[in-house]
Structures are given as structure tokens and as C-alpha cells.
Write a structure and sequence with these properties.
749 residues; 24 strands; 41% helix; binds glutamine; binds zinc ion
């Protein structure tokens, strides 16, 4: 059986692209050197896939920053403000990705958004009235040729026109229909250019098809592809979809003249049912090797799924690009080899494809690879904890409800804390200066004793609290100096988690994350934050806010198990964090923030599934964490993206007492939605953007607060930055917070 890979990680085995790009941004290496790094990565990726025997290998999956951005630049969707900088091609590209501040001007970057249901982020192309869409670049053609030169015959993969248009922002008076013809024409030109070079198969990636589609969307899709397919000449076209099934448009898609159709059998719940009818004469690319998670494939399941498909023309494929998993397990010496046998990263997935392809064509039951795989699926060591399982099984409905009700608690808490109107606070972390990181690292490496490590952090906490008192903040935090990362820190203190050394996954541009792996049932091994918070409290008479990461975020930023549901795992984590909440309360911490920065991450792509598949258990899981605290204990939560305008009732149903969230970049639109929905929770919409070193002026903050007061009752409004301050410098942080407090005082006056 033939095999296909939709895309391969491009950051490099040891994040070479990240480091080279950062050096290039700092002027430490030349463009030529950066291009050389890129070429080495591309070549290695292609050759490894070829060596593994993959039939259909993608070119053009590489990107210096992001594939949506590549596609925009290819078709001249470059807003004037970037062209006006008159930079080189590569620097214009990076200006769009990261903004530009220098002698030639000062422009912000394009907006960035989450790529479907992943933790990858794409740059949002902008079409305005000046945009003239045409094929101006040749990256796909060059990449196809370059692959040919090293002996790899590739399929060119490119984001398809439908997805491209649907994800683009129209900032002028034009809409999709005004530009569709130009865009279609540009794609046709690209197909022709590739055909001329001998390209045989082009893969159009159209993940947008797995979301809800209107009648108008379907029309647009058909119009686009009728033209493209008519002019495809000798090139074959693969319509590749992923991240779900295409139930809304499957019937139409199979009637179009695609040569091949790629469907996701891992996340597409309806895919197996849809392909019961699959037209003769077309090839089915069956995405059965999970491109998003790191567990080894279940050969028995996959082979029987393949056997069930009622067409002979099948290519076995990854379910989506392998961009979303780490590069290789090779080098993860720290992982127990029994555990390691259960994992498969991008490189290992290539072998799985090859194995499965070969097994399918033989009498696999007796094949050693099949037998070994089967054994591995019979169980894993140390992943079951019966106490945890029975604790989850005995959760009762009332465990999800906090009493008394919000309104009553609000009164009790106002009486107790006696905070001024518009109370000021921060989101938790303070700048993680070099000495803070050094202290952690030296302790981890055994170069520092536990006592020295603790003493250093206590001094930091004391200093940080003194600073907050001087600045005049009302609710104090300890600063989070003991934490590397808001998920890893908790994971390390919970049983059931595993950590890797080098399993980086691209989140956006040069930024990568290293998700934890949830290996087994989760329980709290010991109190995690209590000593730090207690110490902080002993340093001040002001209220101190304890700081935890919530269960949904811990799950969403880890690789989840596949042997139990993510709901089950989340409830386990919720019970563990609940123990921590109750311990904090017992130790006198009466304000506790439970961060749910990534709450939206796994929100299903189809609206109809939002509640039934996700929010109906995710929101209760959050409530489970705090439902047992006393009425006078104030629960805060924090969310990073204010993109929750459409799920406001669910956010309110978290039943926190206060929520802080990012708002400064999103033109405060969310405030209208809060008002319309009668949002009960007290709110702190961030008054300035912490993602930039810029210090906001007092006036600016007063203006933001004045706007907020029009939509939010005074007694419910908190004053705080957008997010944690750990990536900021000390100097700008102090200045910004002083202005924040000054602004709150002016408004109080
Ligand atoms: N409490 C965390 C911090 O302040 C929250 C981080 C986040 O929301 N990403 O760093
Ligand atoms: Zn945040």
C-alpha cells in the first residue's frame, strides 16, 4: 500500500531554524546563512521520508514562519504598509510576521490566530482595496525543483484557496466575491507553473471544510474548484482535509473532478461512515496515523479500518501534518525505555506508515511487527491508580456546585476584603530575570542545595511584595519565581505525567512549546504551592492571591492519553488541583486564582458540538476545583485570549468570583457581549498589552477604564494588566504598574 505524509516539522531536529532565525533577526548572521540552515532542514526532512519509503512526500510544507503567510506573499496579498518599508523580500515577509521598528518605519505585525483546534498559530492575511492578487512568487516551484535535485519526487502541498479566503481579513470595502476570480486565476497560474516543471500531484490543503459550512460557502468552494480542476492539465489534484470530517460537503466534493481526496479518520468522527460511498476512479488518502498525538499507532485497529474501506484505491496517510508532534524520540534518553516504546514522534511515525503499508499487503497476523505492536496495546505499566479512579467515579452532582450562590458570596467578600473601588492586581508572574532562571537551573542540576534554592526565592518574593506595596497594588501576588512553565510546574508535582528533553512543537514562528505527556492516572503527590504562598502572606498585611493552573489548561497543553477520555483525565487533574485549593485555604490564603489560559483550546470546530462534546464537562471540571471553598474565599480565574465572546454564558458558569482576561488588543468588543449577557462575574479586562515592552501612559489607561465603565458596573470592575509579567523587563514593569495604579486612583477620584 502506498503512503503519504501531509507535512513534516520544519523547526529542525534541535530547533535549528528557531535559533538561526533569531540570530538573523538580531543581525548576527546573514540572509545567506539563514537560507543555508533552511536548506539543510528541508533536505534532511525529504531524505528521511524517502529513506522511510514514503510514497507521497510533500514539498512546500517548509516555512520560515508560517504557511498562511507564505501563501499570502506568493499571491501578493501584502498590505501597503509593509511594501512601503522597501525592505528585501525576506525582510518584508518577516515584517509581516513580527512587525518592524527601525529606520525605515514602524509597523505592527499581522494579527495571529489559533490554527483550527491546534496550539499552532497562523498569521491572518489582510486584503484591502489596494490588494491586487496575482502570482508573484515561486516558492512552491523552487521547492519542488530543489527536492528533485536531491532525488526526491514530491507532491507540492499548498493551502487551498477556499481555506485561504475564509481565514483572510478584509479590511477595506472588498469582500470574498470581489477577489475570488483573481485568486482562482493566481492558483491556476501556479498549477501551470508546476506542471511545466513536471509536477505530477498537487495537494490542496482545505482544513476549513471540516467546520460548519453555509450554502454560500459550498457555492464558493464549488466555483473555485470547478475552474481549477478544469485547467489542471496533466497534473493530478489531491484535495486534502484534516482536523475533522467534511460531512457538510462530502456529497458535493466526491462529484468534483478531484483525482484524490484526503480524509481524516482520527478526528473525523463521521469519516468512516462517509466513505461507505466513495466514487470509483478516485484515490482515497486515508488519514489513520495520528498527526497530533504521540502514542504509537494501534496496528490492529488501523488495519481493520483499512480493510473496512470500500474502495481499492487507498493511500495510507497521516491524519494531518506532523508539524503538531515533536521531531524524534531519538535522544530522549531520560525516558524509561518501557514508556518510550509507547511513543511515536514525527520520525517514528514514518516507520509506522511504512510498517502498516507493508502489513496491509501481507498475512500480517504472523508478522513480528504486528505481534509486538499488539502486545504494547495490551497495557502500560504504572498508569492505573485505583484510588484516583474511584474518586472520579464517586463525584456527585453537588460536587460541581459552589454554595452559597454568587450574589451572596459577592456581598460577603466585599464586607470581608474591603477593597477600594476598582481594585488593582496583577495576573501572577513577575519578570523572570536571569538570576531567577539561574537559581532554578542550578537547583535542578544539583549545584545548589534545597535550602539555598528556597532562600533565594524567598528573598525574591519578599522583594516583589515590597515592590507591589510601594506601587500601591491592592491584591498582592508572590511572583511565581519557582515556575518554569505554568503546566510543567504542576505536572512535575503530580503523578501520572512524563516530561521530555527535546520534544518541541512549533507554536508560532520561532516559538516552540514542550508539552508534558499524560501517562497515567493523575494524583497530587504533595502540596505544591502552599509553602510559597504562606511565606508570601507572612510578608504583608495586604491580601495575597494564591496562584494555580486549572485542570482544563493542564490537559490542553499536554499530550493526552488515548486509553481514557480527555474528560476523565481532566476530572482527575481537577481533583488533584482541588486538594491544592483546599490546602491553600486551610493555610489562610483567602484569594486563589486558578488560571484557565487555554480553556478554548479544544473547543470543537463545529458549533453544534461545543457544549455536548466539550463545554458540558470542561466548565464543570473547573467548578469541581473550587466548589468546596468557603463563601468568603475569593476565587479568581484568568484567560489569555478574550476570544470568548461567543461562549460568555459558559465562562460565567465557571462561577469564579473574578475573571481577568486579555482585552487591550481586541478593541474591547467583548465588553458589549458581557453586558448583553448580563455577565455576573466581576471582571478585570487587561488595561495594557504585556506582549510589548512599551510602557502605557496614565492617560491611556484612564481612557481604557473610562470605556470599560460604560459597559461594566463600577462595583464589578478590576484593574490589571493583560497577562503575567514574566517575559517583561523589571524597569518597564515597574513603570507600567505605577501608571496603572495612578490611573485607578484618578478614576476613583
Ligand atoms: N499566572 C500566570 C502568569 O502570570 C498566567 C500565565 C498565562 O495566562 N499564560 O504568568
Ligand atoms: Zn494570560
Amino acid at each position: 500500500m502506498r503512503t503519504s505524509v501531509i507535512g513534516f516539522p520544519r523547526i529542525g531536529r534541535n530547533r535549528e531554524l528557531k535559533f538561526a532565525s533569531e540570530k538573523y533577526f538580531n543581525g548576527e548572521i546573514t540572509e545567506k546563512e539563514l537560507l543555508e540552515t533552511a536548506e539543510a532542514i528541508k533536505n534532511e526532512n525529504l531524505l528521511k521520508q524517502k529513506e522511510a519509503g514514503i510514497t507521497f512526500i510533500s514539498s512546500n510544507d517548509f516555512s520560515f514562519y508560517d504557511n498562511m503567510l507564505d501563501t499570502a506573499v506568493l499571491f501578493n496579498v501584502i498590505p501597503k504598509r509593509y511594501k512601503d518599508l522597501k525592505l528585501s523580500g525576506l525582510d518584508t515577509y518577516f515584517a509581516m510576521a513580527r512587525g518592524y521598528q527601525g529606520e525605515k518605519g514602524n509597523v505592527k505585525a499581522l494579527a495571529m490566530k489559533k490554527w483550527f483546534n491546534t496550539n499552532y498559530h497562523y498569521l491572518v492575511p489582510e486584503i484591502d482595496d489596494d490588494t491586487k492578487i496575482e502570482l508573484i512568487g515561486d516558492k512552491p516551484v523552487k521547492d519542488f525543483e530543489a527536492a528533485g535535485k536531491i532525488g526526491v519526487n514530491t507532491k507540492t502541498s499548498i493551502i487551498g484557496p477556499f481555506t485561504f479566503l475564509k481565514l483572510t481579513r478584509f479590511t477595506g470595502s472588498k469582500n470574498v466575491h470581489d477577489v475570488a476570480d483573481d485568486l482562482i486565476n493566481a492558483y491556476v497560474q501556479l498549477v501551470k507553473a508546476l506542471e511545466k516543471k513536471g509536477e505530477g500531484l498537487i495537494e490542496f490543503d482545505e482544513p476549513r471544510l471540516v467546520m460548519d459550512l453555509s450554502a454560500e460557502d459550498k457555492e464558493l468552494f464549488k466555483n473555485i474548484y470547478n475552474v481549477i480542476l478544469e485547467s489542471k492539465g496533466s497534473v493530478k489534484i489531491l484535495l486534502q482535509t484534516f482536523f475533522g470530517d467534511i460531512r457538510d460537503i462530502y456529497d458535493e466534493v466526491v462529484k468534483l473532478d478531484f483525482d484524490a481526496i484526503g480524509l481524516d479518520f482520527v478526528e473525523g468522527r463521521k469519516t468512516a461512515e462517509l466513505v461507505k460511498f466513495f466514487p470509483k476512479g478516485k484515490v482515497l488518502f486515508a488519514g489513520l496515523v495520528n498527526g497530533k498525538n504521540i502514542w504509537i499507532n494501534d496496528y490492529s485497529k488501523t488495519l481493520s479500518a483499512l480493510k473496512d474501506i470500500a474502495t481499492d484505491e487507498i493511500v495510507l496517510s497521516t491524519s494531518c501534518s506532523l508539524l503538531h508532534v515533536p521531531y524524534t524520540l531519538d535522544g530522549e534518553a531520560g525516558l524509561d525505555s518501557d514508556c518510550k516504546a509507547h511513543f511515536s514522534f514525527a520520525r517514528e511515525k514514518l516507520s509506522e506508515l511504512k510498517d502498516l503499508g507493508e502489513l496491509f499487503d501481507t498475512d500480517f497476523e504472523k508478522d513480528e511487527r504486528f505481534i509486538r505492536n499488539k502486545l504494547l496495546h495490551q497495557g502500560r505499566k504504572n498508569c492505573m491508580d485505583s484510588a484516583v479512579q474511584s474518586a472520579v467515579a464517586s463525584i456527585k452532582p453537588e460536587d460541581y456546585e459552589r454554595l452559597p450562590k454568587f450574589e451572596e458570596r459577592e456581598k460577603i467578600q466585599k464586607d470581608k476584603f474591603r477593597l477600594p473601588l476598582f481594585p488593582t492586581t496583577t495576573i501572577g508572574s513577575f519578570p523572570q530575570t536571569a538570576d531567577v532562571r539561574k537559581n532554578r537551573l542550578e537547583f535542578k542540576k544539583g549545584l545548589k542545595s534545597k535550602e539555598e534554592y528556597i532562600k533565594f526565592n524567598q528573598d525574591k518574593i519578599r522583594e516583589c511584595i515590597k515592590l507591589q506595596e510601594e506601587i500601591g497594588l491592592d491584591v498582592i501576588v508572590h511572583g511565581e519565581f519557582e515556575r518554569n512553565d505554568m503546566v510543567e510546574y504542576f505536572g512535575e508535582n503530580l503523578s501520572g505525567f512524563l516530561f521530555t528533553k527535546n520534544a518541541w512543537v512549533q507554536s508560532y514562528g520561532t516559538r516552540c512549546v514542550k508539552p508534558a505527556i499524560i501517562w497515567g492516572d493523575v494524583a497530587r503527590k504533595n502540596p505544591i504551592t502552599v509553602e510559597w504562598s504562606k511565606f508570601a502572606k507572612s510578608c504583608t498585611d495586604k491580601p495575597v492571591k494564591g496562584m494555580l493552573t486549572g485542570p482544563v489548561t493542564i490537559l490542553n497543553w499536554s499530550f493526552p492519553r488515548e486509553d481514557i477520555s480527555i474528560k476523565e483525565s481532566t476530572l482527575q487533574i481537577a481533583l488533584a488541583i482541588r486538594d491544592e485549593v483546599l490546602d491553600l485555604e486551610k493555610n489562610g490564603i483567602d484569594i486563589i486564582q486558578i488560571d484557565e489560559a487555554a480553556l478554548r483550546e479544544k473547543l470543537p470546530l463545529r458549533k453544534a458540538d461545543w457544549y455536548s462534546e466539550y463545554l458540558d464537562w470542561a466548565i464543570p471540571a473547573f467548578r469541581l476545583v473550587h466548589s468546596k471553598v468557603k463563601s468568603e474565599t475569593q476565587i479568581h480565574t484568568h484567560m489569555c485570549y478574550s476570544e470568548f465572546t461567543d461562549i460568555i454564558p459558559a465562562i460565567d458558569a465557571m462561577d469564579a468570583d473574578v475573571i481577568t482576561f486579555e482585552a487591550s488588543r481586541s478593541d474591547l468588543l467583548i465588553l458589549d457581549a458581557l453586558r448583553e449577557n448580563n455577565f455576573k462575574t466581576e471582571v478585570g479586562p487587561g488595561v495594557y498589552d504585556i506582549h510589548s515592552p512599551r510602557v502605557p501612559s496614565v492617560d491611556e489607561i484612564v481612557t481604557a477604564l473610562t470605556k470599560m465603565r460604560k459597559k461594566i458596573e463600577d462595583r464589578k470592575l478590576w484593574v490589571n494588566p493583560d497577562c503575567g509579567l514574566k517575559t517583561r523587563g523589571e524597569d518597564e514593569t515597574v513603570k507600567s504598574l505605577k501608571n496603572l495604579v495612578a490611573a485607578a486612583k484618578i478614576i476613583r477620584g
